[in-house]
Known about the structure:
Elements: E1 5-8, H1 13-25, E2 30-33, H2 41-46, E3 54-57, E4 61-63, H3 66-76, H4 87-112, H5 122-139, H6 153-168, H7 170-175, H8 179-190, H9 192-196
Parallel strand pairs: 1-2
Antiparallel strand pairs: 1-3, 3-4
Helix pairs in contact: 1-3, 1-6, 4-5, 4-6
Bound molecules: glutathione.
Amino acid sequence: MKYPVLYSFRRCPYAIRARLALKVSGIQVALREVVLADKPAALRACSAKATVPVLVVNHQHVIDESLEIMMFALKQHDPQGWLVTDAELVAESQRLIAYNDGEFKSHLDRYKYADRFPDQAMEVYRAQGESFLRELEAKLATSAYLLCERPILADMAIFPFIRQFASVDKVWFEQSPYPRLQSWLAGLLQQPLFSSVMDKYVQWQEGDPVVMF
Ligand SMILES: N[C@@H](CCC(=O)N[C@@H](CS)C(=O)NCC(=O)O)C(=O)O
């Protein structure tokens, strides 16, 4: 296999951020669409935790963290300048992404799958998640994107998760007191780059022809 292999799942926000970075960097990969309830043995064989996304480069170099896949891609080619060098921006970007992937993701899961977490009502989980929405809304009051006047790594790594939060109850999100966040999200979703990473693929099976992404 000449190309890196990407194990992906269309709707997974971690996989979306990885595909965004791979696509913008122009790195071609062979895509293997995973169904989480029926993970292929080949995925388990290369990554014990078997989460998606996983990128396998040269048959042996396994990258099984979405942010690391983004960095791998952008370090090779970063035509939109998602990687910044300013130390303060880098630190703030890392802080936001860490909060997103940690506390916010946990609130998001509870809000999205509230029936699986019957301790609290859905609205309680949503309110917990909203503290991040408030923080992002405040950031967008001082710049067009989260940390500066153009989208950088933080925007691209975080918006797939805000998209998922918004989709739980679109009517609620559209009337929520976060107008800047709504426009920021809508703008990023309207980018051709986003639609270019959201094509639908059938579940990959061992022996299938290569599907280029
Ligand atoms: N820290 C990982 C998290 C990836 C992750 O948790 N992906 C979810 C799908 S959205 C997954 O594969 N879950 C495994 C499962 O449901 O079995 C990353 O950034 O890549």
